[in-house]
Each structure stands twice: as C-alpha cells, then as structure tokens.
Amino acid sequence: MAKQQIAKGFYRRIFQRYLRPQSAQLLLLAVLLLLSSVVALAPAQVLRFYIDAAQQKSMLTILLVMAGLYLVSVVVAMGVNVWSTYLSERLSWSATNRLRADLLQHCLDLDMSFHNAHTPGELIERIDGDVSTLANFFSQLILRVISNAILLVCTLVLLALTDWRLGVVFTLFSLVTLFALGKVRNIAIPHWKVARQASATFFGFLEERLNGREDILSSSATGYVMHRFYQALQKSYKLEKKAGLLGSTLGATTVICFTMGYVLTFALGAYLYQQRVITLGGVYLLYQYMLLLERPVQQITSQLDELQMANAGLSRVRDLLETSSLLPESSSGSFAAGPLPITFEDVSFSYTPERKALQGLSLQVPAGKILAVMGRTGCGKSTLARLLLRLYDPTQGQIRFGTTPIASVPLHTLRDSVGLVTQDIQFFHASVRDNLTFFNRSIEDQTILEVLGQIGLLDWYHSLPQGLDTPLQSSQGLSAGEAQLLALCRVFLKDPQIVILDEASSRLDPITEQKIERAIDRLLTNRTGIIIAHRLATLERADQVLLLKDGQIEEQGLLASLRQDRDSRIAHLFATHQEEVLA
C-alpha cells in the first residue's frame, strides 16, 4: 500500500512538472479527443438512415443528402484526428525533452561512485531510451483512455435507445471484457522493467567496446568480444521476447472476447430483425456499434499495454531520480576573492577498503604559489586533484581553501573557483564558441577572441570557415597542441582562483610547446596553481614540490631548498635527470 502511494505521488509530480506548463494545449487536446469520440458515432447513424431510406425507395435527393452528410462526417473525423495527433506529438516531445534534461542534470550532480557503477552507454539508454517509452504516456495516453471510455458509454446508450435488451446485453458484454482485460493488464510490468535494464546493460557493453576498438583489434580479441556481444544481445532479446509475449495476453484476451461478441451481435441482429423489432438499417447499425465497441476496448487494451511499458519506464526513471549523491552539499557559503591558499589537513582517501589511495596527507600551498606534484603512476596524484574538486570526499581529514572547508560551500561555488586542465581533453559536437564557453551565453565573442589572441590561436581562428560558429567533432582535425591550447582557453574564460594542471606527457613541436608554456605562465599569474608534473623542466616554475609514493608523502618542501639539499630525492632527480619517476 505504501509503495502504491509513493507511485501515485510520483506520477502526480511528473504530471505537474511536465504537463502543467502546457495545460492550455492539454485542454485543447482533451476537447479534440472528446470531439473525435462524438464524431465517430455519426457515420453509423447516417448509414443506417441511408439503408432504411434506400430500402423504402425514398427520393434520390434524400439519398444524396445522406451521402453528403456521411462524407462530411468522415472528413471532420479525419481532420480532428490529424489535429489531435499533431498536438499530442508536440506535447510528448516537449514533456519528454524536459524530462531528459532533468535526468541529465541529476546524473551530472551525482557523485563519482554512481558514475563508476554505471557505464555511459547504460546512462544514455536510461536517460533517452526509458524516457522514449513515455512519449505516448505524456501526450495522450490518459486522455485517450478517458475519451474511449466516453465513446464506449455513448455507444451503449445509443444501443439501449435502439432496444433496451441490446443495451443490457452489450453493457454486460463490455463489463465482462474489461474485467478480463483488467485481470491480465499488469502481468508484464515487472518483465518489461527487467527487459529495460537488460537493454541498458547491452548499450553500456556496446559503448565500452566501441571506445576500446583499437585495443581490441591490437589484442586480436575480436572473436571474444563478438561472442560477448551475442551473449548480451541474446539475453536482451530473450527478456524482451518474454515481456512481449506476456504483454500480448492482453491482445489475445481481446480477440477471444470480441469473437464471442460478434457471434452475439449477429445472433441478436437476426433474432430482432425476424421479430421486426429493428430494420435492416438497424441490423447494420448493430454491427457498426459492435465495431465501435471494439475500437475503444481494443484501444484501451493497447493503451493499457503501452501503460505497462510506461510504468516500467517510469519506475526506472523514479529509481534514477531518487538516487541521491553521497556528497553532502551546503546551500550557502563562499570563498574570499583573489588567489586562495590550499590546506590539506591529515587527508586520507581510499577507493576500496583494501588499499588507501592517499594516507595522512598534510600540506599547505600559499595563495598565488605553485605546487608541483610528482610520483609514479598510482601514487595518488590524480586522486589529489579529484579531492580538490570534490568529486570524492576524504575518508579522513579536511581540505580548506583559505579558512573555508571546501565541503561547507555549494558544489557549483567550489567548482567555479577551480579550473582543471586534464590530459584527456574532450570536445562536444558543437560550435567552437560552445566548446570554449561550455554553452555559457553570457561570455561575449570579443572576450573569446581576446583570449585566443593571448594564447596564440588567432591564426587558427582565422582558418576556421565559420569562425566561432564552426562545429567541432570531438578532437578530429585538431593537433595535440591545438587541443591543449583550447583546453587552456576554457580555463582562461572561466577565470578561476585555483588552477589544476595535469601536464601533457606527449611530446610537441617546439613552436607549439612554446605557445603552451607562455599560455600556462599567463594562466598561473595571480592564481594558486597545482601542476601534476611529468617532466623535470616543469618543476622549474613551481614554488613547492610534493613527491608522492604509494599515497604517502615521500618528500615535500620549497623547490629551492630541496635542490640545495644533497640528501633530497628532488636534488638527486635533477642531478641524474631521471624523469621516469614522473611518469
């Protein structure tokens, strides 16, 4: 009972959020659907009178008028259906796109433990695929159920007006049919939910393998991957087949019920005609009304079938929306202006209980100074950067910017204050402008051009066929150096107080490398900087150095002091030029 109350409350919230803003269009659609139900009754009545008039050899003029009325009623019905279909499509696309946007924003706000547990392909299927099953639900499902119910009632009333016995018999028939359908309508819902999850898992598998196609080909693992592909596809197919078969019990029940209904119709029609209770036109009308009874009941059946899929989709949407971030977020708080000092106070962190990525880390970076972090792969360099952005929270200790703990300010405030440049630079399928500003329309084109000039990309900009409107597709068509410069441009436009730079390990041509060095110098001016270093030359611009080993501090201090200390590990690296420790 409590679960049903939660579901009803969720459905109510969904309708209020995504359909209430379109209440005027929804009302118009309701009127059109009701009108289509009423108009559907007219052609049968016109044909009844036409048949009776023809049988009685009425005047040709009367027959022509009735034929004209029939054509008008059919055209009006078609026009109403076209208009209602257009309006329902607009409603469904508008509502589902808003829901997709909300789901995407919600996923972006979740912590990394959620994203580590779900592949991008799976999330795409949940954000887009599950929502696609709700298109009809949002636009017209409930309204069509109501309008078909009204059509059903009107048809039964007209049958009763023709002869009360017809009204009683077909009312009982309709109640028995709807009762039978109600018994089987929910049978497929849990199976559709499992099938949707299998589909999401399959797309996650597909996305991962497509991204790793070069490694798969180079490792001669194509056969194994294809075997796994067929296994995942077969599992998804079997589950969807089972859900579809169980869902088809609705259709099968409908066919059985209406086969009996048509037998009843012809038997009653023949009997009443022989008793001279109804005319030949009345027999035809009885048959047409049986068709009209079949239409709403079949559509209600079909819509209940769609409702099973929609319920499964809504259930998964609800599960996703009710997933909360493990990172507690403050609703207020801010940092002081200008470059910020950074303090790590006995910070420890582990991705798994078995092994700590960082252990007992304590250090201070004064405002406006630069810390170079170095160490072998897996020593905790990247983890340190993730903690500064609060992609994770420390399992022990505290991080402060100035005197303010970073956990005490809103996440958007924290991340607005920190600029991150990674080695793995990603570009959206969007314009150069949107890629540089991250779709922030408040940044003017002139500001973008000034930054491009500062980092030496004006010549590249002038080569673009559409200027800032030129579309970028991932990093295709960009050299490694251009991609890094554009990533630096993003941080310039963001204007953060702290910059985290994961230095590129790839070698560049001397001219591009000089451009990048000058851009980094400008970027770090009057900002606190943390550089994850991969080359000894990078240490030259640092004020402090932190050497990590297995998540612990092996050595730290001022660069100048460490270079003069003969027992220092840093001094030994400079003396021997052993850059492999920075890899």
UniProtKB/TrEMBL annotation:
Membrane topology: Multi-pass membrane protein
Protein name: Helicase
SUPFAM superfamilies: ABC transporter transmembrane region (SSF90123), P-loop containing nucleoside triphosphate hydrolases (SSF52540)
TM annotation in the entry: 60-83, 141-160, 166-184, 245-271
Tree of life domain: Bacteria
Localization in the cell: Cell membrane
A Pfam cross-reference name: ABC_tran
Main location: membrane
Gene Ontology, cellular component aspect: plasma membrane
Organism in which the protein naturally occurs: Dictyobacter vulcani
Domain ABC transmembrane type-1: 27-309
ABC transporter domain mapped to chain residues: 342-575
Tagged with keyword Magnesium: no
